[in-house]
């Protein structure tokens, strides 16, 4: 079949993100003999027009539209992407069967299929089920009954099955060099699944709670391809947690060292599973920055958010970075269940003590169905049991009233290394464009040391 793959993501803040999920589909589709054409809307100046031209040129037998996110999960500066996605589906309507998928779609598949249009959707990981789905379409049969395949109006679809063997993404069709040039890095995934119990997290819903590891030699081969064939200079490991299981992370780092690949990289890591040996191996393997999903500096809030680690482990993990000269950022979530002025102040005090390169703080926590936070929000009267969550909806602790934004703004502005995207503190579209003139390789927060004092909307004028 001739297929048009559409990456619907248009968000470029804080940087354009390579559509790795769609790249994971491309390989199996090509090997199954399908003819593929890509329409990546991230860089489209006139998305509807360029998509219409691609449809006329390609004349596909089926259209696969991948949704990375449905909004920017940021409060109060929230942006919904649904209008743009709805326009994308409308342009494709009537041309060929439309199949929706991707992580964004899988969060609320029935609601999104009904709201956006399209003929069917693939929930969860799609690279294995997409082949039999297309075979049935080619034979003129309905794919209803395939695990993870949802038809319009069907309420009895079967839960998706996890992919048994995670392959290697096929980036052939994609503008990889542009993503690296404008985003500063390429993305690599080493595993799927998350066994942890953070109350807000959707990873276990999307990938399951059982960790599935890619063979280390396969990951090394992918890194070699990126660096040697495509000239990639910086990598971001997009795993939910890079350093769990810790023995796998160590094996990968040692293999990178032994292979001789020359590339710098960043990863999102858990403070609980960082040891001096692992940190040394990471640094020797090219790691020059790490991101900790700390969420809070308050012991009570760590428990409330379902975190697996303690404040003391956050301290120890931060000290390892200072000792080795590694840039590091802590990601913070304010406003969760039980958050008070006192717990907010505990978090600011801990960050002052640890003095990371940057603190990236989000105010409010996006509520998604299926999470523990969703049940808590209903119990606390923040949402009703039948609340539509397609538009950005956030949990903000009832104990804070309407004061969260003011509390965080006042404190973050007094510190040079804080970034609060929702409040545009040291983060705005204008500032991001300016920072990119530095030709940054890696995360933009590494430049916090150059910014001086904190400010709100620093370049808005």
Keywords:
2 domains, pyruvate-formate lyase- activating enzyme, 7-stranded parallel β-sheet, 461 residues, 36% helix, Rossmann fold, globular, alpha/beta
- What is the CATH top level name of the largest domain? Alpha Beta
CATH architecture of the largest domain: Alpha-Beta Horseshoe
CATH-defined topology of the largest domain: pyruvate-formate lyase- activating enzyme
- Rounded mean pLDDT is 94
Strand order of the largest sheet: 7-10-11-12-13-14-17
Name the structural class. Answer: alpha/beta
Please report the distance between the alpha carbons of the first and last residues. Answer: 51 Å
Q: What about the largest sheet? A: 7 strands, parallel
Give me the Rg, rounded.
22 Å
Inertia-based shape: globular
Summarize the structure.
Helix content is 36%, strand content 16%. The chain is α/β, with parallel strands linked by helices. The strands form four sheets. A seven-stranded parallel beta sheet has the order 7-10-11-12-13-14-17.
